[in-house]
Amino acid sequence: MYAAFRSIGAYVPERILTNADLEKMVDTSDEWIYKRTGIKERHIAAEGEHTSDLGVKAAELAIERSGLDKSEIDMVVCATISPDYFTMPSTATLISTKLGLPPVTAFDISAACTGFIYILSIAKAFIESGMKKNVLIIGAEKLSAITDYTDRGTCILFGDGAGAAVISATENKDEAIVEVHTAADGTYADLLMTPNGGTGSVHDSLDAESSFMQMKGNETFKVAVRTLTKDVKDILAETKIEADSIEHFIPHQANYRIIKAVGDALKMREDQVVVTVEKYGNTSGASIPMAMNDLYEAGGLKKGEMMLLDAFGGGLTWGSALVPFSPK
Ligand code: ACO
Q1: Taking a C-beta distance cutoff of 8 angstroms, is the pair 325, 180 a contact?
Q2: Number of CB atoms found within 10 A of residue 47's CB
Q3: Low-confidence residues of the chain, pLDDT below 50?
Q4: Which of 79, 154, 166, 201, by CA, is between 20 and 30 Å from 321?
Q5: Which helix (H) or strand (E) holds 23?
Q6: For residue 50, how far is its CA from the centre of ligand 1 (angstroms)?
Q7: What residues line ligand 1, using a CB cutoff of 6 Å?
Q8: What pLDDT does 210 receive?
Q9: Which pLDDT does position 208 carry in this prediction?
Q10: pLDDT in tens, 140-157
């Protein structure tokens, strides 16, 4: 049995936070933000609009486009670092109930910006083992809730949103997800973390209010470019797929300069590289499916086309995937 990437959906909240808005909040400028990151604006969830609500809207679209009935979904996995609740219940459980699914396996994973690639690998493994048939995977983030809007080094980067996909069992090898790489290295843990929100914090307690993200941006940037470039070169070499033959390179949307550096190292043409960081900023686990959905809705993603995904985030975690788009 193989795992096929059947459908994609996404949701972005209405409210937009522009660079001009941020100029009024911290000592920064539109010019600095755009030049250093490629970001112009990001979307922010409304008060009372939770991560699970964003995830539900993305998931509804993905399920509808898969052609499946909701009752056929047998597992829900959500990648998030901004869950509705810090420990329980999981955001995946809330999403599956809000969707009206029957009781199914549902859980969250924490791999920061690499979250979508991690849940893709989980869906693939469950399907290939024969344990599940139709897995709904969701990257959903309300990063505005864990962003310190007095810290100009981080608040200019992050936004809210969600993306979802349905991965289904198939016997047709041509439809199959080719390969997924995932990795993590805790020696870089202090580069990017929420240091005050758990039992490892100085308070040795859960303290949601002070659990804002902290980042050593410049060091993170350098490790990101080095690690991602090696990982995508490795996955292409292992699968004997030429970068030139890939229709869509859909990287995690953290910073245009990281995307450009990795794309250049692979000698990717501009028309291969999907860039949405300008309008959404960094939405962590949601960024890859949101970018993919933009491409799909613009009519640019067709059956059989090969996607190369890559991501890098807190942990540190990283990963890549080679995935043909395989709608029914
Ligand atoms: N506006 C104006 N100036 C600023 C701002 C700002 N918003 N932020 C920092 N600066 C200043 C710094 O204070 C510094 O000033 P100094 O030279 O006087 O000391 C100067 O700009 C340069 O700062 P750097 O941090 O070296 O800037 P850099 O070019 O590295 O850009 C950035 C910073 C955008 C954060 C970049 O490092 C980056 O994108 N890093 C990677 C982020 C990432 O990919 N994270 C992983 C995924 S996120 C996740 O997992 C949730």
Answers
A1: no
A2: 6
A3: none
A4: 154
A5: helix 19-23
A6: 28
A7: 28, 32-33, 36-37, 112-113, 152-153, 156, 192, 217-218, 220-221, 224, 254-255, 258, 282, 284, 312-314
A8: 66
A9: 58
A10: 999 999 999 999 999 999
Neighbours of 185 (CB within 10 A): 12
153 Cα: distance to centroid of ligand 1 (angstroms): 5
One DSSP character per residue, 29-72 reads: -HHHHHHHH---EEEEPPTT--HHHHHHHHHHHHHHHHT--GGG
| CA 147/CA 281 separation, integer angstroms | 13
Distance CA 155, CA 151 (A): 6
Question: What is the pLDDT, as a whole number, of residue 269?
Answer: 95
> What is the CATH code for 1-328?
3.40.47.10
Q: Give residue limits of the domains in the chain.
A: 1-328
- The percent of residues above 90 in pLDDT, for the chain, comes to 94
Q: Return the amino acid letter for 144.
A: S
